[in-house]
Amino acid sequence: MTTEIPSDVMTIREMCEAYDVTPRTLRFYEAKELLTPIRVGTKRLFTRRDRARLALILRGKRFGFSLEDIRQTLDLYDRDDGLTAQRKKACELAVKRLAEMEAQRAELDVAIAELKAELADAEAKGLVPKHAA
Amino acid sequence: MTTEIPSDVMTIREMCEAYDVTPRTLRFYEAKELLTPIRVGTKRLFTRRDRARLALILRGKRFGFSLEDIRQTLDLYDRDDGLTAQRKKACELAVKRLAEMEAQRAELDVAIAELKAELADAEAKGLVPKHAA
DNA sequence: CGTCACAGTGACGTTAACGTCAACTGCTCT
DNA sequence: AGAGCAGTTGACGTTAACGTCACTGTGACG
What we know:
homodimer, 133 residues, Multidrug-efflux Transporter Regulator, Chain: A, Domain 2, two-stranded antiparallel sheet, DNA-binding
């Protein structure tokens, strides 16, 4: 046996194409302990778990979270085992983040409204040659 | 005459306290041409215009825009004179930014919903000791 | 007149999230 | 054996937005 290598693993190239990231990025994430691909000799093999985590990482990034934030939150999806203490902490973190997000959205709403008003005003003043229908 | 210095100017210290920023920040913004305080000898005097711009800068930053983005948009509020071409460009920029903001808000809405669901799930499973009322 | 506190000017340091080499190491194919 | 290529490991470069010195300059005060 080759030390129990799951059958559905992917090489770094396959990962890059599948998720549209660079090899550098994947290695970087590994260094940051966001991913833990199997090391066969010197090469990396990404498991289903790694792919799930990567998907979550990318989603987190789209929302503007730092990799460090993401790393901590990842455990929320991960460990289905005991360690309720850890889990509780993860949830608290998520709740905090949730509040931050809602605050951010509220601010965005205000900004959007302001900008829209500003544009409408400029148009009304005829300062702008009607930009759209 | 001391070369026409407006009466309602503020020193760097006053600005720092009024807007809760550091001197370094104000000097940095000046270097980036976001602010243009009057230079009396070597000292800086911030005018009403500078204060208005700073307020807009800080608001922009809260929304996650880069200083470069902000610098360009600032002209939208500023020049009430001619130069319609420039003005048009500024408006287009604002419209683009508006779209980005709405997209971002949409993503945030999704993320918020997902997180909420996730938390509710965790609670339902009894994995977490009821974090709030 | 000394010195203090504040202002100002470089200029280098910092964090995040990678990009970009350079220089290997192994395979694999011929 | 040689070529070629994917993959790896450092290690330095990059952008943004300041922080943090170190040092100079200056007006006010006792």
